[in-house]
Amino acid sequence: MRKTGCVALVSALWVLSSVTPGLTQHCQPYWTAEYKCLQGCGPCPGGGGPVYVPPALSPEQLAFSRAQPRFINLIRLLSESLPFFDGPAWMADLPNTPERFVEEANSLHKYLAALAASLDLQAKAYRDTLAIYDHVTPQMKEDFRSLESMSPRLEAKAREAKGYVRWYQAQIDNLKKISRELKGRSDDYHSRIKRDQETIVAAYRVFLPDGAIPSVGPDSIVEPAAIPSTPMPRDPDFVIGNEARPYLPRAMPALPDTNAQPNPAAVRSLSGTIDDRAGALEADAQDARRSFETRNNLMQQAQTVGHAYEAASSDLSRAVEKQGALIREVYATRSLVDQLHREELAASDMLHSEEAHFVFYASQAWIWQNAKMVALNALKVEMKTNRYFKTHTDAAQSPFLDMTEADILKYYNERRLNIMNLPDGFETTVGLNKVNNSIVTLLVHAEGYASEAARLGAFGSETESNEFANGLYGGMQKDSEELVKQGMNAISVPEPFATIMTKFSLKPVQ
Predict the structure, then answer these.
(1) Is 31 helix (H, G, I), strand (E, B) or coil?
(2) Per residue in 248-278, pLDDT tens?
């Protein structure tokens, strides 16, 4: 409490001396001899005469005279022990009457009692804070050690996941590369089939009357059944263990308020005599000093322990952030692995589809290559041996009979049909009828297709077979060829294609 104004010591003494009527001054026991002389209540040096004897002091004045020095000493003590206590203000406005003493003592009592109470509350808050720190800090250190021990396992999981990414990407790239190579071979065989089919039809149309054989339609080539999509496995490639479980922070109790403020209004006023009040003030001062020291000691301890808590909290925060980053990396990589796994399955399915097309087209290319040879030979034989040409010698000697395939296609594209004007029904002769039926069966996939295709598939000389076998995987890399051969077991191939491809795909290269 800060006092305002200044009352001179002389004024205080004057007030104390005015307790008797008149102008007579009464000496106070604490006045000096010189001052007593000046006031006319004591002997003067070298003087004579009677000495003035002041009247006796009242019990209240005597008590005040005893309490005043104690009050002054108390102010000095508080100024020295409590840095925030405004001693000069109190010394400048000392009480000069018993009544003022009672008033000022009560004010100081309320201040000191309220101060001690607030310091005690602060001390309790610091004790509670220390208890919280003592409980939470070891837990945080334990959590930090636990998280630190998980980091190597999470890093290993991240490396494992990245390994799957690289492996699947390499698989996808390789499967797509082989699919592209195989599609190139399939497209080539598809073109050869169409060319041989058109050559057969063109030859019949150029040499024979219309209606000998049907045109090549969009369904004249046998297509493989669609390859069903491979389902995603139920079990993931790698399992994320407990180390990837996110850290759940412990509930941190709220730290108590350590800034309780004094409330003098809540303190009861002093009672009793002046001596009692002076003693109460000394007890108040002792309590305030003890509370201040206790609060300061606990505050210093809380600051020291608080630094350890902050360090543990900072370490734990970094560990949580590191773990979170690793967990996010692992889960993101696993999602990428799942995505790449699906792409790898799709690429594998696509390769099986291309393998099926390759088997179907290559087999049919061999069949239609033989069918073309049989059909063209049958035409030449029939037109040179048929009795019709015995009576039509001009037709028998026609240069058209020795036309090449290129000439036949050229005439067909120019729509120059039945160039030798053969009569209707010539195509039904015994020599051509069997071949016609065979070609029609192949073109329209009629009943008996498999046996007819197998019969034609068995044609071909050793040289032609070797040539076809050597060119089967032409343009493909050796590893691609081996993978395609291994993958043949994964697709379902009907007869006669299965037998034909078994014959050629396993045939050693000559």
Answers:
(1) coil
(2) 878 888 999 999 999 999 999 999 999 999 9
